[in-house]
Design brief:
Radius of gyration: 22 Å
Helix content: 25-40%
Shape: globular
Strand content: 15-25%
Length: 415
């Protein structure tokens, strides 16, 4: 019996929709691969949201036919999954597998509710940033499949087709074109938006936390020292007491309205904003974020994927479903069609229907430069302090003193 709940709306819009693609039905592993396991009598429970249920259902049908297992899909409100999974897995009432975002991982590992996943050959078919996002202390804790990231978006009607590779080139290009505003960038008004600003910060070599050789985040704060100070100084220079390119008067809606109205040459936004940015007919181009500090601008990348319960009594069967039935070209295409997001599956990203869409290709190129948003629990202690410091600097506070105090406060908060 399938339990029904309240679904969530698709997050992608506009040009991210894959127009004209025929529906694909996932198939079992090829005959040249290992024979399917015998899972007769086993029932796997999988939590999903409304949008992705049809795609998972198709993969489940092939799995049931080939292995003898039964897959029960339970439709959940995506916003409830993190809390419900943490609460129900220890009681034995949770699923074997759940859909989820990579930033659930820290809480899941701390609560002991997820198991590691051996991606096997699938690891080489995934973008490395996606695998890193589902890694914790050097172990992979899920099967990632989709990405989301921000990028540089330019109004080609105003500033032309040339893509700037540095901040200075971008501003000069917009000014030469006569744009009323060279750039609009969301600061969430007086709240601050370190997420959107992160590409510029990393171009100074100042990550929020240091990653180890495995790609996992450590608790070492990486935005202290000369690199962090250099970014803070730059931010002050571009703020309200400097050139005014970055202002706390710009929130998300204002950002999109100014760009859509043709008053700004460039913005930094995600695929979720494309519809708003083009609502008044603006023609756009999407590219990687230009460098402000000399190094590659590495924005945060969010990743969607599947988690395996640590209390699953059918862990081996669940693993088989993940890496041999969901980790196929057919299943990945079905997931994309059901809920269009940037694919982490490399062959899908190369599909002409996707790769030839310049909007999608631009966001994928930006994501390829990116790093996963930290999922460690300590990240929860960072956002408010980090955002507030950036707002203060943009408004004219001493950059070095403000940034240094913020870093000290973050280090104290994470203990």
């Amino acid at each position: 019996m399938r339990k029904m709940g309240i679904g969530v709306a698709a997050l992608a819009a506009g040009s991210l929709l894959l127009a004209g693609c025929a529906s694909s039905t996932p198939t079992a592993p090829a005959e040249s691969e290992a024979a399917p396991i015998d899972a007769s009598g086993v029932t796997l429970t999988v939590w999903t949201d409304e949008n992705r249920e049809p795609a998972i259902e198709a993969a489940a049908a092939a799995f049931e036919e080939e292995t003898g297992a039964t897959v029960e899909l339970v439709q959940k409100n995506f916003e409830d999954i993190r809390t419900d999974f943490i609460n129900q897995v220890p009681t034995g009432e949770g699923p074997d597998i759940t859909i989820g975002a990579h930033d659930f991982l820290g809480a899941f590992v701390s609560a002991g509710v997820v198991d590691t996943v051996d991606l096997g050959e699938a690891a080489d078919k995934l973008e490395q940033v996606a695998v890193d996002a589902f890694s914790y202390d050097g172990q992979v804790y899920g099967f990632p499949y989709a990405l989301e990231s921000i990028a540089l978006i330019q109004n080609t009607d105003l500033v032309g087709e040339d893509v700037p590779t540095t901040w200075d080139e971008m501003i000069a290009q917009a000014e030469e074109a006569g744009a009323e505003r060279p750039l609009v960038i969301n600061t969430a008004g007086q709240t601050g938006d370190a997420y959107t600003m992160y590409g510029f910060q990393t171009s100074f070599g100042a990550p929020v936390f240091v990653q180890d050789d495995s790609g996992s985040y450590t608790t070492e704060v990486g935005m202290s020292g000369d690199a962090g100070t250099a970014f803070a100084t730059w931010l002050g220079e571009k703020g309200e007491k400097g050139t005014g390119n970055i202002s706390t008067t710009i929130d998300y809606d204002t950002n999109n309205e100014l760009f859509a109205a043709g008053k700004a040459g460039f913005t930094i936004q995600g695929p979720w904003a494309v519809e708003a940015l083009t609502a008044q007919g603006a023609n756009i181009k999407v590219s990687p974020i230009p460098s402000a500090g000399g190094e590659t601008a590495a924005p945060f990348v969010g990743v969607q994927g599947f988690y395996l319960s640590s209390q699953s009594e059918n862990a081996l069967v669940a693993q088989e479903f993940l890496v041999n039935y969901l980790a196929t070209d057919e299943a990945q295409k079905a997931l994309y069609e059901a809920d269009p997001r940037l694919p982490a599956w490399k062959t899908l990203a190369e599909d002409p229907a996707i790769a030839e869409d310049p909007i999608v290709a631009g966001f994928l190129a930006s994501a390829a430069n990116g790093v996963p948003q930290p999922s460690i629990p300590e990240m929860g202690s960072v956002w408010d302090l980090w955002n507030a410091a950036q707002v203060q600097i943009i408004k004219g506070a001493d950059p070095e003193a403000t940034w240094t105090k913020m870093v000290s406060d973050v280090e104290a908060a994470i203990g």
